[in-house]
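Narrative progress, year one. The postdoctoral researcher (J.K.) led the effort to move from monomer predictions toward full complexes, under supervision of the PI. The following entry was the first complex the group processed end to end, covering 626 residues in total.
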Amino acid sequence: MVVGSMLHINGKPTVHFSCKSNHDRPSYIPKPTAVKMTTITTTTITTAPSILQPYWASLQADIEAHLKHVMPYKDPLVVFEPMHHLVFSAPRTTVPALCLAAGELLSGDRHQAMAAASALVLLLAANHTHEQIPSKPKPMSRPKSNTMSFRAFSPGIELMTGDGLIPFGFELLSRSCDSVQENSDRVLRVIIEISRAVGSKGLIDAQYKKKLLSESDGGESCHVERIMDIMEKNEGGLHACGASCGAVLGGGSEEEIERLRKFGFYVGMIQGMVNEGFWEEVEVVKDLAFKELQYFKDNNRDVDAISSFIIHV
Amino acid sequence: MVVGSMLHINGKPTVHFSCKSNHDRPSYIPKPTAVKMTTITTTTITTAPSILQPYWASLQADIEAHLKHVMPYKDPLVVFEPMHHLVFSAPRTTVPALCLAAGELLSGDRHQAMAAASALVLLLAANHTHEQIPSKPKPMSRPKSNTMSFRAFSPGIELMTGDGLIPFGFELLSRSCDSVQENSDRVLRVIIEISRAVGSKGLIDAQYKKKLLSESDGGESCHVERIMDIMEKNEGGLHACGASCGAVLGGGSEEEIERLRKFGFYVGMIQGMVNEGFWEEVEVVKDLAFKELQYFKDNNRDVDAISSFIIHV
């Protein structure tokens, strides 16, 4: 690792070192002590890898098909048009697909964790929608393509639609309870997992810290530490949640759930580190992720599919 | 009922008639055909009755004490200070107290439905917080009293805090699952009830329609119909949800749950009608509410306490 190398902020290269320890940080994650010749973008969000691997794309397609089925485009269009637009135009992340993949790894059924994966899509879309609401009103325009680079709806509609998507996500999950499987305890556990990951101590905390970081003047020497802290709750925390929820609904044991939680955390951290240019640390974390998968391989599980979440990054 | 009487909007008296039928409206609710000499306030929210009856106040105090216990004022204060402020300064409604009251009526234990009542407080506070976010930034000031007539936090913080409160409400509910009582199915049912009541087809829909109504020019003749439609999802729907959730967690049978849902709906409609000056209809709905309570009285339940929700309005 390069210590004390260049960090570009607002185009100005400065030298930064980590200046505090984070007692909450898992000790198995290497902490970059500095950032190497890369522009830090504090507005990065958890997005799908640029290479759309067939497995991820196939899982994502299944989730979207399911969402279109449970959330049909119907009257009142004034409600369902913005819901559809904001859900399907939000940046895709690998979090919901990893949830399905974890469920498939343990149960052999790709759709075992569909309710949790769908809820994650809805909650992350709601979060993204609210994150895009400007502090000052901007001109509206009609949607022309499948991107969010314009404002398709007024901030008021986006606020209300986001507020509608969140309970709908929890409703979908609760309705997935299956009396045959008697899985209500597992569904409740997933609700707790997701609530924590997207809540005040998870994603919301990361976004607040990201906001503070983007407003800071760049004169502090804690940037790397702060970026890692944000990454652990954003990319790391969300993927850990996705994988653990898939494991819970896939009928996993405590050991399996915790190993998949760690694997998911590494998947997210790898994505975050790639975005920030922490290349050396990426290889270390990939090794850690493979070690978690080795446990499943040793127990005769086919890990080829799920390992694509780290191989193709 | 007076048909075609005076409706004051923006100080200008006009005559209004209902102009369409609402097939979704329960037939047992009388629909005012016109509003009598009263100023319609489309910005009314569901608030507690002006007379704080001892029973309601006592239930509310218990819920707030519970919330302070599960949501302690702790570090990071940057997260918990706005959470506390926005939860405890939001307008109090009778919805959570009615939830506890319904649970107490059936189980004899006032705290049986505490998780649902607390979740309702959090979700309604989040909704109120988001509703107050201005479309244009306003000057901030520090909190001086227990009201929301000023902006204590920036819109960005209010948006994020609201987004944190919603999953926390669902987390509280999910965590309340009791392995001794084996009530996970009932908790999941409550999550569905609450999700629907506060979601796109419930409260959010009512707020959207309220927004449209407040922006209309007053030249239409459908105001009463539209006000009733909003009231049924806002005051009516939320109280129906509160009472039914209390009944579910109180161990109620399907008959008891549905009767308490209707009772809650009437409680909410009475409050809404009082706010709008639909006085004649209030008495009709009170009778309907008492009829639902009669069922419980006939089954040797003590309905004195819960009946205070309609007696003192």
